[in-house]
Predict the 3D structure of the following.
Amino acid sequence: MVRLRLRRMGAKKAPFYRVVAADATSPRDGRFIEILGHYNPTKDPQIIELKEDRVRYWLGVGAQPSDTVRSLFRQKGLLKNQDQDAQPADAESEAPSEE
């Protein structure tokens, strides 16, 4: 199975990560199929850059994202969040009243 996960790069105590498509049995920093983007948590604000068309392709063919990568995809709007389902109902209640 193909997993979408993070691959650690950078210096000691200064990590950044590549988002990669890799075989589920390969090691964290081992072989991968394709680089899909990068994530730098040490910058303020955090940098998340993804090749959205390739991410959608891999999700479409059944690749499973890791928990952390799933969180990054939600932040970028590539995956639907459970909270977004309830948001339209809340938006209607917050509409300004006519006075």
